[in-house]
Amino acid sequence: MEELAKKVALVTGANRGIGRVISIRLAQAGAQLVLAGRNQAGLEETARMIVELSTVDKLEPLICHMDLLDASSIDGAVKKALDLFGRIDILVNNSGITGKVAPLWEIGEQEWDETIDTNLKGPFLLTRAVIPSMLLRKSGSIVFIGSVTGKRPFMHRSVYAASKLGLVGMMRTLALELGSHGIRVNLISPGFVAGPRLEGVIDTVAEIEKISSEEAHSKMRAMIPIADFVSPENIAEGVLFLASDRSAGITGDDLNISGGLVMY
Fold first, then answer.
1. What is each CA distance from 192 to 20, 78, 80, 224, in whole angstroms?
2. Using an 8 Å Cβ cutoff, are 85 and 135 in contact?
3. What was the pLDDT predicted at 204?
4. CA atoms 210, 215, 216, 222: torsion sign
5. Which residues contact 16 (CB under 8 A, 6 or more apart)?
6. Of 36, 53, 64, 258, which has fewest CB within 10 angstroms of its CB?
């Protein structure tokens, strides 16, 4: 069932990983996609995959170059989407960076600023740019991709945790401000998501703790009640739920998809 038919969804970081899987899942549900990110080749590959899977006649996904550290780039991409489609019904703030994996006292000011700017300021700038068009129609769904790291401490992840916990505060405040305008705002807190980014974190942790990557991998899996990492597809299904009318009564919520790693 194409429950998102006639909806327009903008997804950041759509060029790879979770962002690509989210984009494909929303397209399968009938949404028209705006693919945003910095990697043109990756965005084009995502668009190609969506076109190949499409079973209905609609416009090809719109590719928008977007740098979350550049406000003019963000405003330009949003304008391009609105000029073509006239609306953005769903905004998925997915894009982000891992930041430096190290004790806080070994993180430089520039490294701190880059992570906070990308993971927190960038979503602020993009959401601010999209909201006016949603206010005009008195409808919309905004989904932030946070992290369980913003809710429970993990060694060597201070700057990443600060950025993701900041998203929770912004999301809840926005939900309060926008509820009366028919706009819902929610957040997903993924746990350890299988993929290259997690493998990079595991390798860095192994180096810091002077253990093998296999040992670090096993330690992380042992923390999860279901004893397995979550998949990008698990996250995409959560986004689809929050973007669709199935979650019409939900706003200001923080949905854990972590295999039980976090239960609050």
1. 17, 31, 34, 9
2. no
3. 87
4. negative
5. 39, 42, 46
6. 53
Q: Which two tokens stand for residue 142?
A: 């905004």
Q: Are the beta carbons of 13 and 95 closer than 8 angstroms? A: yes
pLDDT value, residue 92: 98
pLDDT (average), residues 128-156: 96
Mean pLDDT of 203-218: 90
Instruction: Provide the pLDDT confidence category of residue 1 given band limits of 50, 70 and 90.
Output: low
Mapped onto helix, strand or coil, the DSSP state of residue 255 is strand
> Please, where are the H alpha helices in 89-157?
109-116, 122-137
Q: Which of 150, 198, 193 is nearest to 172 (CA)?
A: 150
Mean pLDDT of the region 38-50 = 97
DSSP 200-230: HHHHHHHHHHTS-HHHHHHHHHHTSTTSS-B
> What residues contact 178, with CB distance under 8 A and at least 6 apart?
131, 134, 135, 140, 142, 184, 185
Structural domains in the chain, CATH included, are: 8-192+231-257 (3.40.50.720)
Backbone dihedral angles phi then psi of residue 193, each to the nearest 5 degrees: -95, 120
- The torsion of the CA quartet 205, 211, 217, 221, rounded to 10 degrees, works out to -100
Q: Could you tell me if 149 and 256 are in contact, meaning their C-beta atoms sit under 8 angstroms apart?
A: no
List the catalytic residue out of 160, 232, 254, 262.
160
Residue 55, pLDDT score: 63
Q: What is the mean pLDDT of residues 136-140?
A: 98
3-state class of 4 per DSSP? coil
The token duo for 40 is 């043109």
Q: Are 93 and 126 in contact (CB under 8 A)?
A: yes
